[in-house]
Amino acid sequence: MSIKFAILTVSDRSSSGLRDDLSGPALQGAVGDYGWEVARADIVPDEISAIKERLCQWSDSGKINVILTTGGTGFTPRDVTPEATKEILDRNAPGLAEAMRAGSLTITPHAMLSRAVAGIRKQTLIINLPGSPKGALENFRIIAPVLPHAVQLLENDSGAEENHQRPLAA
Q1: Residues 120-131, buried b or exposed e (16+ Cβ, 10 A)?
Q2: Global pTM?
Q3: How many helices and strands, by DSSP H and E, does the chain display?
Q4: Helix crossing, 81-88 with 48-60: angle to 10°?
Q5: How many domains are there within the chain?
């Protein structure tokens, strides 16, 4: 199944050129490893308005199936990605964020500090990931097996029901 992704890095330092974005390119590589396409990628500062603008632009275009954000999900005052995401969602998809936290807790106790959210705007799934390349990749790999089915459901694909009884691949 062809899935079109957009990857949004949320970072004051990367957006201003003070630090290279490592998480965005790492996620682009991982998306490609699954045979999926990264149609858009960008970097914005840790500003609610900038995050919301890009999420709305991409999801409202009708050309993106899944948006992955990386960064801004922690406890610092500038970490506002979950707040921006919540403001533009039509529906929540809490199971994805719960699965990421549960899976990450097997790796590090710091996973319980993640405030990441996931949800749907129009027909686009939006998922917040951690800002570190390692954390972003670990969390992406946890949810990747369900993304084709999620996209089928969002597209109201009549074949989506066939996958309900099939266990996830290990």
Answers
A1: bbeebbbbbbbb
A2: 0.94
A3: 7, 6
A4: 40
A5: 1
CATH of the domain at 131: 3.40.980.10
Residue 168 lies in a domain: no
The answer to whether position 49 is within a domain reads yes
pLDDT in tens for each of the 170 residues of the chain? 899 999 999 999 999 999 999 999 999 999 999 999 999 999 999 999 999 999 999 999 999 999 999 999 999 999 999 999 999 999 999 999 999 999 999 999 999 999 999 999 999 999 999 999 999 999 999 999 999 999 999 999 888 777 566 666 65
Structure tokens at 79: 């970490």
Alpha-helical segments (H) within the chain: 12-15, 23-33, 48-60, 81-88, 94-105, 133-143, 147-154
- The range of the structural domain enclosing residue 95 comes to 4-163
Of 83, 86, 68, the residue nearest 124 (C-alpha): 68
List strands edge to edge, sheet with 118-121. 37-44, 4-10, 66-70, 124-129, 118-121, 91-92
Q: Please say whether the beta carbons of 129 and 158 come within 8 A.
A: no
To which residue do tokens 């974005």 refer?
21
